[in-house]
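Good day; I would like, with your permission, to put a structural problem before you. What I wish to show you is a protein chain and, alongside it, a tokenised description of its three-dimensional fold. I would ask you to consider whether the tokens describe a fold that such a sequence might reasonably adopt. You will find the record immediately after this paragraph:
***
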Amino acid sequence: MPKLFLHLEKKTPVHSRSSSPVPVTPSKDGSAVFASFEGRRTNEINEVLSWKLVPDSYPPGDQPPPPSYIYGAQHLLRLFVKLPEILGKMAFSEKNLKALLKHFDLFLRFLAEYHDDFFPEAAYVAACEAHYSTKNPRAMY
């Protein structure tokens, strides 16, 4: 039974002269109604929690991992170098362009604020290490 109804103690109807058959306190029969709602809600929550963005077998073991598994925030920032050129070739109204630029600015501020999370020192190697590791590349996390 929901906690909302646990502390109701009145057993008389709200209107003393009312002939309403509905009591103020829920009966044991009424708790079944709430239980069915609760059960349905639990089933719906469990269904949503069982959803997956990608199947368990993704990526297939015989194929290399997709680029999104390899490329990180550094590569995303490289996009911003090309962004003015890309936006220049698109037809945006002034209003839409200002809104888009505002969102880009907020996103870049977010990356700057949390740069330690997205760009950890461990993700970088010295140039000489990178040169020697081209023969035996490894993923860096």
